[in-house]
Specification:
Elements: E1 7-12, H1 14-21, E2 55-61, E3 71-73, E4 76-80, E5 85-90, E6 96-101, E7 111-113, E8 116-120, E9 125-130, E10 136-141, E11 151-153, E12 156-160, E13 165-170, E14 184-189, H2 190-196, H3 200-219
Antiparallel strand pairs: 1-2, 3-4, 4-5, 5-6, 7-8, 8-9, 9-10, 11-12, 12-13, 13-14
């Protein structure tokens, strides 16, 4: 049976292109924006009144399903596919700029920072790719699938794995003899974090005890 081919669809209208042009330098470089929001405060043109004017500008057919959410940076759309690949497409035309083949499905949504694309794969690896060429800069093997979408903040890449660990990687190259780009800075077990944090029931019990003490003090 022939595999189903799913397209990455980018919907635009002429006024959307104008809106983007009015905001030079603005981009959506990871799954949540840098402040962890998922809405676009820079769009002052598109509204409920004119959204009906949206039309297809271009589409690109990958080799399989696309569950990954695209990241947009410097006029390029980065997205993963179930065909094991990460794609870089021209935001204006949909033209293929490059693709990189991992060892399994890519449902992770890429993050882009300082000219590097960070993305996970179901082959258990976290990848760092040159944003311009798609060349592999480094990869790190976790203990299981990496379907989590990386987040970048303060010079560190954070990503979770199905091995129940959260990983943090440094962005910059270390000095000679002191490490390498993509060096693992820290790793924490989700189970360990949960053990250190009080449960919901514990918080509620503590809140109840505090209110009880306050009530007793007020009656003295």
């Amino acid at each position: 049976m022939k595999p189903v081919r799913i397209s990455v669809l980018i919907l635009f209208a002429c006024f959307v292109s104008l809106a983007w042009g009015q905001q030079p330098g603005k981009r959506w470089s990871q799954f949540h924006r840098h402040n962890m929001e998922r809405w676009n405060p820079y769009d002052k043109v598109l509204s409920v009144q004119n959204v009906g004017g949206l039309g297809l500008k271009w589409s690109y057919a990958t080799g399989s399903d696309v569950d990954s959410s695209p990241a947009i940076a410097n006029g390029v759309v980065y997205v993963g596919s179930w065909d094991d690949k990460v794609y870089a497409l021209g935001a204006g035309t949909g033209a293929l700029l490059w693709s990189y083949t991992t060892g399994n499905v890519v449902t992770s949504s890429p993050a882009v920072a300082n000219g590097v694309v960070y993305v996970g794969s179901d082959d258990d690896n976290v990848y760092a790719l040159n944003a311009r060429t798609g060349t592999l800069l480094w990869s790190y093997a976790t203990g299981s699938l990496v379907e989590s979408s990386p987040a970048v903040a303060n010079g560190v890449v954070y990503v979770g794995s199905d091995d129940v660990h959260m990983y943090a990687f440094g962005l910059k190259k270390k000095k000679a003899g002191c490490g390498r780009q993509g060096e693992l800075k820290t790793m924490a077990s989700v189970a360990d974090i949960l053990e250190r944090e009080p449960t919901y029931d514990q918080r509620m019990a503590e809140a109840g005890e505090s209110r009880t003490r306050a009530d007793r003090d007020s009656t003295k």
